[in-house]
Amino acid sequence: MGPHGVMGVGLSSMRHEATAARRLTVLLVGPTALVRVALRQLLGAAATVAIVGDVPPDEEALELARRDPPDIALIDTPDLGGALPFISSLLAVSPETRPIILSDEEFGDGFLQAVAAGVWGILPRDLSQGELIRAVRQVSRGKAVIACALEPPLLARLRELGARRHAAEPAVVLTDREASVMRAVAAGHTDTQIARQLGVAVPTIKSHIRTILRKTRATNRAAAIAIAYRAGILT
After folding, report:
1. Tens of pLDDT along 38-78?
2. How far, in Å, CA of 181 to CA of 191, rounded?
3. Which of 42, 108, 112, 109 is nearest to 76 (CA)?
4. Which residues make Cβ contacts (< 8 Å) with residue 32, sequence separation at least 6?
5. Contact 110, 154 (CB under 8 A)
6. Strand 49-55 vs strand 7-10: parallel, antiparallel, or unpaired?
7. Hey, which of 23, 120, 159, 179 would disulfide with 174, CB 3.0 to 4.6 Å?
8. CATH architecture of structural domain 169-230
9. How many other C-beta atoms are found inside a 10 Å radius of the C-beta of residue 232?
10. In Å, what is the CA distance from 10 to each residue of 4, 19, 52, 80, 120?
């Protein structure tokens, strides 16, 4: 752990065999080519990581993600607010991709907006090579990774929101099959992998996930996992 003390927030202890059997695919996104080249060099040293592209946050990036969805999108940005529309578009074309933001910005309300948008990681730009590789692996295993500076008003707001939501959050009741799908999603399995494991068609899994999102009142899979963890469905 480096000076920033990267913190992994465990959402599931499950790990899937596919992660160990194949390399994690990572799409590098950012406005500066030099930064993308540096990230490629840092991550390229990991035998378990495959870089599938490094592109600006534009239509080319979305087309790459649509054509061959990466496990992770590592997004370098000087402006979190400016990156959120791209992240929303990315998850619309590749909902199983897990975005990680690299930024030196001190986060205020943008932090909550990023989490709501489906971001799995928020990290500073000056991470060591080992910390960056470890963060990518943690996110691929269903953990959110946070290591950023929070403004004091935001920290107070997070505490207030956490206490209020815990008191008001309705009970989540999933069927046994839906709970199985939820655990598999949290473990990082793709829809295709889950369908194969459960012996059903991929559209059936997508239907279960839509039902899970409705029951948890979540806008995306990351939010549903967090709610299921708090509800005791994930341990």
Report:
1. 999 999 888 889 999 999 999 999 999 999 999 999 999 98
2. 9
3. 42
4. 76
5. no
6. unpaired
7. 179
8. Orthogonal Bundle (1.10)
9. 9
10. 18, 17, 27, 24, 11
Q: Coil, strand, or helix at residue 4?
A: coil
**What amino acid is encoded at 10 in this protein?**
G
- Helices marked H in the chain — which ranges? 17-21, 33-44, 59-67, 80-93, 109-117, 129-140, 152-168, 176-186, 191-198, 202-216, 221-230
**CA-wise closest residue to 172 among 227, 222, 221, 118:** 227
Instruction: Say how far apart CA 108 and CA 121 lie, in whole Å.
Output: 16
Q: Which residues contact 104 (CB under 8 A, 6 or more apart)?
A: 78, 124, 125, 126
β-pairing, 7-10 vs 143-146, is antiparallel
Report whether 156 contacts 186 (CB < 8 A): no
- Residue 29 and residue 76: Cα distance in Å, rounded? 6
- Separation CA 12–CA 111 (nearest Å): 22
> 127-169: per-residue pLDDT in tens?
899 999 999 999 998 888 887 666 666 556 656 655 555 544 5
CATH of domain 7-159: 3.40.50.2300
Residue length of the chain: 235
